[in-house]
Amino acid sequence: MQAAYTYEPGARVHIFDARDLPWQDTSEPGLRLKPVRYDDAAGHYLGLVGFAPLTRSGLHQHQGVATSFIIDGSLCDHAGEVGLHQAGINLAGATHDAVSYQNTLLVSRLEGPVLYAFERGDVSGLHAGSRLAAFDNPAPEVSPDINVNVDALNAQQTGIERVRRQTIFDYAGTGSAHRFVQLALAPGAECPAWRCTHLSEFWIRGGLLQIDGRTAHANCFVIIEPGATVRMASPFGALLLAWAEGPEAWLDEAAVGRARAQRLSLFGF
């Protein structure tokens, strides 16, 4: 798969308009990808996934955390359905076969390889890091999916005026101290400058986000490399999904603390 993003040293902020990225077919008819970041060796992926009606993923087992957000349609496996505007989380060991009964579009992020049964004969390319292997379901009594109604989550104060956070998944018990959240920036919101300590990525669900002197609009992906200095605001409001692999570092935390009573936390670390 040809990805839009290629890492080069430089601690930069990248913006990709998913509308401009080409759909790429997998070997499984009906499955298409718009890869923003694709690392087949590590099994890492960020981008869009499209299922045509009656398309199956094929039986597979996740070896790392996978997170998705349903933009349109739904997917179903033996545990049930993940539907519109829900997030689905698959932990390491999750074993399932997902099918779409309608056109389905999702934002997807993979953090580890995926195993497919030898009987399949080949791998579809749906998952970065797909491998053929023998496997059993390590926890058949446990659902392979954690499904979250994102918009129904309680909103939390970030300590930044006009910026609120809904925590979708905090990765507790996975061995990774990551965060998956939805951030809502009301019109006029402006964040103090911060430094990215670990890889952080956004998908803009709606509105306009000003970041690094540029504008990211709905259906844009933002990749923030470790070490980058980030300045972000939204004069007209923005709603976005964010994956952060580590906490932000405020560049003038003492001054920020004097101005506001609550400790600042964008991602909830």
Short description:
By secondary structure, this protein is mostly beta strands. Helices cover 3% and strands 47% of the residues.
Index terms:
269 residues; 2 domains; 3% helix; 7-stranded antiparallel sheet; Jelly Rolls; 10-stranded antiparallel sheet; globular; 1 helix; mainly beta
Write the layout of secondary structure elements.
Elements: E1 13-17, E2 24-25, E3 31-39, E4 44-51, E5 55-56, E6 60-62, E7 66-72, E8 75-77, E9 80-82, E10 86-90, E11 95-96, E12 99-100, E13 104-111, E14 114-116, E15 130-132, E16 146-149, E17 156-157, E18 163-169, E19 179-185, E20 189-190, E21 194-196, E22 200-211, E23 214-217, E24 220-224, E25 229-230, E26 232-234, E27 238-244, E28 248-250, H1 253-259
Describe the structure.
With 269 residues, the chain is mainly beta. The protein folds into two domains: 21-149, Jelly Rolls, CATH 2.60.120.10; 153-259, Jelly Rolls (Sandwich). It has one helix and 28 strands. The chain has one helix at residues 253-259; strands spanning 13-17, 24-25, 31-39, 44-51, 55-56, 60-62, 66-72, 75-77, 80-82, 86-90, 95-96, 99-100, 104-111, 114-116, 130-132, 146-149, 156-157, 163-169, 179-185, 189-190, 194-196, 200-211, 214-217, 220-224, 229-230, 232-234, 238-244, 248-250. Strands 1, 17, 18, 19, 20, 22, 23, 24, 26 and 27 form a ten-stranded antiparallel beta sheet that branches. It has a seven-stranded antiparallel beta sheet with strand order 2-3-4-13-7-10-16, with no helix packed on it. The protein has a four-stranded mixed beta sheet with strand order 11-6-14-15, with no helix packed on it. The chain is globular. The two termini are 33 Å apart. The model has no long low-confidence stretch (mean pLDDT 93).
